[in-house]
């Protein structure tokens, strides 16, 4: 599966103006994150365990 085939979702923590948007997509082996302005640019990939830790930490703040 290419990253172009993934279902990308805008993060609820992104700004309302549309300039500072982060998109997230789940795939079988990772959770991917990208800047919405650079759809073909670099991406971060996290395992499901790493993603769960990140979300748990971020929601405590």
TrEMBL record:
Any one Pfam family match given in the protein's UniProt record, by short name: DUF397
Start and end residues of each DUF397 domain: 6-58
Protein name listed in UniProt: DUF397 domain-containing protein
Organism of provenance: Streptomyces coffeae
Source species taxonomy: Bacteria, Bacillati, Actinomycetota, Actinomycetes, Kitasatosporales
